[in-house]
Amino acid sequence: MLDNVQILFQAPVFSVDLIVNGMLIGAIFMLAAYGMALVWGVMNVINVAQGEFVMLGGYVTLLVVKMGLPPLVGIPISAIVLFGVGWLVYRLVIFRVVERDVFTSLLATYGVAILLAQLINETFGADVRTVDTGMGTWFFLDNNVTVAVIKVVAFVLAIVIGILLWLFLKKSRTGQAIRATAQNARAARILGIDTHRTFAITYSLSAALCGAAGSLAIMAWAVHPYIGLPYTIRSFMIVVVAGVGNLLGVIIAGLGLGVAENVAGFILGAEFQIAFVFLLMIGALILRNSLLRRQRKYLR
Amino acid sequence: MKLYHYLLILLLCLVAPFLLPHYLTQLAFLWIMVVLSITWDTTGGQMGYNSFGNIIFFGVGMYACAVFQRDSGLSYFPALLIGLGVGGVFAMLTAAIFGNALLGMRGHYFSIGTLGLGVAAGEVAGGWDYIGAGSGLTTPLYPGPLEHRDLLFYYMFFVWAVITFFALRRLYQSRFGLAINAIRDNEEKAEAMGIHTTRYKVSAWIISAWFLGVIGGGAGNLMGFIDPKDVAFSGPTFGVWMILMAITGGKGTIWGPVIGAVIFHVTQELFWTLLLGWQRVAMGLLIVLIVLFFPEGILGWLRQRYPNRFNTNITQRAEK
Amino acid sequence: MTSELLEIQAVSKAFGGVQANREISLQVPSGKIIGLIGPNGSGKTTLFNSIVGYHPIDSGSIRFDQREITRMLTPQIARLGLLRTFQQTRIYVRMSCMQNMQISLPLRQHKLKTIFEPLSRTDQQRIEDMLAFVGLHGKRHLLAGDLSFGQQKLLEFAMALIAKPKLLLLDEPTAGINPTLINGLIDRLKVANRELGITLFIIEHNMRVIMNIADHIYCLAHGRLLAEGAPDAIQNNQVVIDAYLGAD
């Protein structure tokens, strides 16, 4: 482990590679986190199945490619399919837990997550899957920094999708309904907004975001049935650090997490990368909580 | 519950291995599930801190015991017995180390924090060569025929489940139990009245970790092989099942987690036999169904249906 | 004077842009009943919260029983003998009244060996007597959550008394109580003060009640200490009357 740290000091150019690639995947984390922040802010539901939606998005794109379509087409298709999945999950499960305590929604969405992960495991097997887009690689700095072109494309698309969603929420009628419901669901209901439908759309939008993220993930990196929980934890961590309503914070935190994770994976070894993510999340929670404790408040 | 109720149940449990000899391993596992469920409820139902990561104590106990058995140089039985204790102690240490920080967080932050802890433990164990990394660990071979081993483990686990049950029941009936119930009902009020809430919370977690760690060591020996992510620190199976068992029977009651464990275990074994790989999918579905439609659990449902019978319980308990 | 049980010096607390407490100084002598009145929004509950450490204060000092408690946390302050009751009554809803009382017994009894023991006979008697004192003896085995609002208030009061505090802060103890029962509550407050030796510091809106039992009254308005004095003086104080009438 210390050898790896030494390498970074002796050849700083490796750090550039880690940082660039870290930021690129961070954009995907950011998308999933944005969705989680939406659902959390609007309906006070922490969706433990968030990561599973990402995973499903990846597998939908896998199927799209298997059917002979070009991979990039998988992005909108995954988003649309996951919108539908989100709608279904909302109508069957989520609407029953929206008004109840957070523990119930945590447990219910955890059940959904387990169900989805095992479903894919039984159907597709536990192998790691990836989709080749044939986009080649860029080399920088004497071939010391390698960046797969698809990763850059994924990064740009992720940012674009994020901005589009932000615009949608700001400008469209539905977007305003969502924001109004987030502020005060009861008032929104009285004013004639169908909160039930707004919740459904919000949840499905979040799932669609994850679908797109998963599609990008399988093209630029890889997926397998059990990538879900780490994605959920990453999203949760990003939202806690950035704050529910803060898109810029989510972007920065997402990119930062990508970098941190990549560097940690290099230093600690790939097998400890996921452990790092989870421990970092715990650390972030504890830190945030202790900062609040000084003001005699608690993370709520 | 009258004395003869207890004796009947005791009798049934003592002869069960001879009534259902084919299912000896599953019966032994039943007692493991009972301990998982009861210990979860200590912080969950009795104290209001819903841990998604108690599995870490199960796994730590499992590994600590197995490593001790591997490295101690003692013969099978002393190594096993002391190993179980070692497992319990390491589990308690884990609770002590992480308890202060995690239990300082309220509600869902505690839940997700513990979720992360449980999974992180699995990932760390999966990369740590000293304890076998991804290949896991095997526990020592029992010096004798397999039926004897299963029988021995059955009775050992049964005894441990009984000890755990009565120890925790005693705890709940004491002032300690009142304190953790108060923390559950209104933690701010408890603090405002001067109760050392942090001490009680961490102590409760440490106590539940002890019982869980010991049975974890036992479980590792029953199964023979310890896999870091699928067995020892498996959140999506044991980790979430312990929550469901307590809820199914009735959170926060003495017998609820026990009843829930029995029902859940039987269901899970049935699913396994009938559905094989799809068992896990069915369990995920079962989790959702229970949480949505039966959150009060069996005892909670009975309490609503027959409130009078339960009021007498309260009267009797308070007058002891 | 350092002989006062509670001394508050120039305490200020702001929330965002709102100055809830502004340089408030007052004293609560041991053994007395002190009233705190003022129109809605004058900062009374905020002051109570400041005293018990519910939030940190911006400036000033709070001394209880000769000890600086300004930076202490709520549980520590409670263990020194300073308790409070809440405006929205707080009790342990899924525990019976007896159990609510049991867990409120003074902390000296929460030592390691006694934690695991059942209730002693003397303690049980004391609890039953205290519940009888507030009129809840017949309901002692009911779950606290099943009591009516007024009964819950009485339970919270009993819990505070059995904890044997030196100083008890009561936040609107008669609010929401049936008017016919208020006299009974006034008597009980007096008994608690005279016979149990508990100093009382009471926020009240019911003028009849506070003028009846208080030895000394402080009046807040707009976060500031407006006036203080004996009940007669306060009742006839024009500044106080204006504060109440001109509160909107």
Secondary structure layout:
The complex is a heterotrimer of chains A (300), B (320) and C (248).
Chain A: H1 2-10, H2 13-43, H3 50-66, H4 74-97, H5 102-124, E1 137-140, E2 145-148, H6 149-171, H7 173-183, H8 185-190, H9 195-220, H10 228-242, H11 247-268, H12 273-293
Antiparallel strand pairs in A: 1-2
Chain B: H1 3-19, H2 24-43, H3 55-71, H4 76-102, H5 107-127, E1 137-138, H6 146-173, H7 175-192, H8 197-223, E2 225-226, H9 228-232, H10 235-249, H11 256-275, H12 279-293, H13 297-305, H14 307-319
Antiparallel strand pairs in B: 1-2
Chain C: E1 6-15, E2 18-28, E3 33-37, H1 44-51, E4 59-64, E5 67-68, H2 74-79, E6 82-84, H3 97-102, H4 112-115, H5 121-133, H6 149-162, E7 167-171, H7 179-194, E8 199-203, H8 207-213, E9 216-221, E10 224-229, H9 231-235, H10 238-245
Parallel strand pairs in C: 3-8, 3-9, 6-7, 7-8
Antiparallel strand pairs in C: 1-2, 1-4, 4-5, 9-10
Our estimate of the beta-strand percent of chain B is: under 5%
The global form of chain B is: globular
Tell me the distance between the termini of chain C. 37 Å
The biggest beta sheet of chain B is recorded as:
2 strands, antiparallel
- Poorly predicted spans of chain B: none
The count of strands of chain B amounts to: 2
Task: Give the termini distance of chain B in whole angstroms.
Answer: 14 Å
* Assembly classification: heterotrimer
Count of helical regions of chain B: 14
User: What's the average pLDDT of chain C?
Assistant: 89
Number of strands of chain C: 10
Question: What is the string of SSEs of chain C from the N terminus onward?
Answer: EEEHEEHEHHHHEHEHEEHH
* Low-pLDDT regions of chain C: none
Radius of gyration of chain C: 18 Å
Structural class of chain B: mainly alpha
Biggest interface goes to: A-B, 42 and 42 residues
**Series of H and E elements of chain B:** HHHHHEHHHEHHHHHH
Model description:
The complex is a heterotrimer of chains A (300), B (320) and C (248). By secondary structure, chain A is mostly helical. Helix content of chain A is 76%, strand content 3%. Chain A has helices at 2-10, 13-43, 50-66, 74-97, 102-124, 149-171, 173-183, 185-190, 195-220, 228-242, 247-268, 273-293; strands at 137-140, 145-148. Chain A is globular. The mean pLDDT of chain A is 89. The longest helix of chain B has 28 residues, at 146-173. With 320 residues, chain B is mostly helical. In chain B, strands 1-2 form a two-stranded antiparallel ribbon. The two termini of chain B are 14 Å apart. Chain B is built from 14 helices and two strands; from the N terminus they run αααααβαααβαααααα. Helices cover 79% and strands 1% of the residues of chain B. Chain C has ten helices and ten strands. Chain C has helices at residues 44-51, 74-79, 97-102, 112-115, 121-133, 149-162, 179-194, 207-213, 231-235, 238-245; strands spanning 6-15, 18-28, 33-37, 59-64, 67-68, 82-84, 167-171, 199-203, 216-221, 224-229. Chain C has a six-stranded mixed sheet, with helices on both faces. A four-stranded antiparallel sheet of chain C has the order 2-1-4-5, covered by helices on one side. In chain C, strand 9 and strand 10 (224-229) form a beta hairpin. In chain C, helix 5 (121-133) packs across helix 6 (149-162). The longest helix of chain C has 16 residues, at 179-194. The radius of gyration of chain C is 18 Å and the shape is globular. In chain C, 43% of the residues are buried. Classes of the chains: A mainly alpha (300), B mainly alpha (320), C alpha/beta (248). Chains in contact: A-B, A-C, B-C. The interface between A and B is large, with 42 and 42 residues.
